[in-house]
Write a structure and sequence with these properties.
This protein has helices at 2-27, 32-49, 51-66, 68-77, 82-95, 105-124, 137-145, 163-190, 201-220, 226-249, 256-268, 290-297, and strands spanning 147-148, 151-152, 279-280, 286-287. The chain is an all-alpha fold. The protein has one domain. 27% of the residues are buried.
């Protein structure tokens, strides 16, 4: 197992050491700022590499949203035959080249990097410290003493009696859980079209993710070194910002964010609202825009007969 993961240890440690060396002239070799920013830099590099996966995730989510009526029909038709229902749903996904698990791709892609970083930082926190990847003895000693707001980045909540370590880890775990929850809630309330809540597999999956992931982070975070918590907090913040940008600039058609963007464009005169393209009001009905109402009030000119 170690032999298989050795290349990952090399990659993760090489990125951290490279960024750390670049920051050493500014903050110093043993500074906690240098090592913390090196971990944050690792996150930024990984997330830039994963942008194509994020784009695929967005496309898959929108394709699944468009398929909701077909999925609902299949579930209703084969409600007494689970096997046939699953077969027809898989056939539908294959036909439209989409995958209901695509939303998990970015997380799954980061899992090996996350595990490698955990092993590297966990080795630094051992007594005596253990070097993984390309870390030298000097790197290990320097990183073991580096601190993030007074807490050594190699220490864990359960493995330390230091009060500062416990306070910093609790704050980071709370931040991780909060950003995970708000990111998922942002997607559900603004980024997804309104759907029928009865027997809706996609909506149920989103609700599970809304509450399950924050609980997982809260429970497992006490075993993570501070450096790993920095990594995961940063990647959560990146995910929130990336999703916020997409929802605001390129929202899913039919979602609350899309309707809000259309209203803004109509108000600015960037798009014209046709009589068949109506805006949904708060009462659930369709109401015409002020521009459409104004057009209806204009009397038609009668042509004079020659």
């Amino acid at each position: 197992m170690g032999f298989i993961l050795n290349p990952l240890y090399d990659i993760v440690s090489a990125v951290i050491v490279g960024i750390h060396k670049a920051l050493t002239p500014v903050f110093g070799a043993d500074s906690g700022v240098s090592w913390s920013l090196a971990i944050i830099g690792l996150v930024v590099l990984i997330r830039i590499i994963l942008i194509p996966l994020f784009v695929k995730q967005i496309k898959s989510q929108r394709a699944l949203t468009a398929l909701q009526p077909h999925m609902k029909a299949i579930q209703t038709k084969y409600k007494d035959d689970r096997q046939k229902q699953s077969e027809e749903l898989m056939k539908l996904y294959k036909e439209h080249k989409t995958n209901p698990l695509a939303s998990c791709f970015p997380i799954l892609a980061q899992a090996p990097i996350f595990f490698a970083l955990f092993t590297v930082l966990n080795g630094i926190g051992k007594n005596p410290p253990v070097a993984h990847g390309i870390l030298s003895e000097a790197d290990v000693v320097s990183a073991a003493g580096a601190k993030f707001f007074g807490a050594p980045i190699s220490q864990t909540f359960l493995g330390s009696t230091n009060t500062t370590v416990k306070i910093v880890t609790i704050l980071l775990i709370a931040f991780m859980s909060a950003t995970t929850f708000t990111t998922q809630r942002q997607l559900m309330t603004k980024g997804m079209p309104k759907m029928d809540t009865s027997n809706n597999m996609m909506l149920q999956q989103q609700k599970i993710m809304l509450y399950l992931f924050p609980i997982i982070f809260a429970v497992s975070g006490v075993n993570f070194p501070v450096g790993v918590l920095i990594y995961w907090s940063t990647t959560n913040l990146w995910t929130w910002g990336q999703q916020f940008y997409v929802i605001k600039r390129n929202p899913t058609p039919g979602s609350p964010a899309w309707e809000e963007l259309q209203k803004k464009k109509i108000a600015k005169g960037e798009v014209t609202d046709n009589s068949s393209d109506q805006t949904t009001g708060n009462n659930g009905g369709s109401v015409a825009t002020e521009e459409q109402k104004g057009q209806r009030k204009q009397p038609k000119k009668k042509k004079r007969r020659k």
